[in-house]
Amino acid sequence: MTERGLFYAYRNLTGTYSSECACGGLIEAENGEERTVAEAVSLHNGSPDHEQWRKEQAAVEALRRPTRHRCPCCDHGEAA
Q1: Which residues contact 31 (CB under 8 A, 6 or more apart)?
Q2: Residue pLDDT, tens place only, 38-78
Q3: CA quadruple 67, 49, 23, 42: dihedral sign
Q4: Which of 11, 9, 13, 30 is nearest to 21 (CA)?
Q5: How many CA within 13 A on the CB side of residue 54?
Q6: Would you call 7 exposed, middle or buried from its count of C-beta atoms within 10 A (0-12, 13-18, 19+)?
Q7: N or C terminus of the chain with fewer C-beta within 10 Å?
Q8: Which helix (H) or strand (E) holds 24?
Q9: What is the reported pTM?
Q10: Secondary structure (3-state) at 52
Q11: How many CB atoms are closer than 10 A to CB 27?
Q12: Domain coordinates of the chain in residue numbers?
């Protein structure tokens, strides 16, 4: 979710502007002004739910990287 994406988000029935973040959370801003949207995104990115999602994404990415050392029990696991 980018700030630009939130600018173009729909206005919901409560009168706020909102958009869904990649983490599944909802980012809401009082209006579509750049500063207000930036503050809403920053506040959301600092939330415990978003932080947990970010850590999980980093862990998944780390698991996808090839290993750099030989496995102690055999020869598999060395990156080319």
Answers
A1: 17
A2: 899 999 999 999 999 999 999 999 888 876 777 677 766 55
A3: negative
A4: 9
A5: 10
A6: middle
A7: C
A8: none
A9: 0.63
A10: helix
A11: 25
A12: 3-64
pLDDT per residue as tens digits for the range 1-24: 666 666 555 556 566 788 889 999
For residue 8, the Cα-to-chain-centroid distance in whole angstroms is: 19
Among 25, 27, 54, CA closest to 39: 27
Q: What tokens were used for 62?
A: 């780390």
The 3-class secondary structure across the chain, one letter per residue, is CCHHHHHCCCECCCCCEEEECCCCCEEEECCCCHHHHHHHHHHHHCCHHHHHHHHHHHHHHHHHCCCCCCCCCCCCCCCC
| Structure tokens, 15 | 């009168």
Only one residue has tokens 């173009």, namely 8
Which residue is it, tokens 């409560």? 14
Determine the residue type at 57: Q
Picking from 29, 24, 25, the residue whose alpha carbon sits closest to that of residue 4 is 29
d(CA 40, CA 19): 11
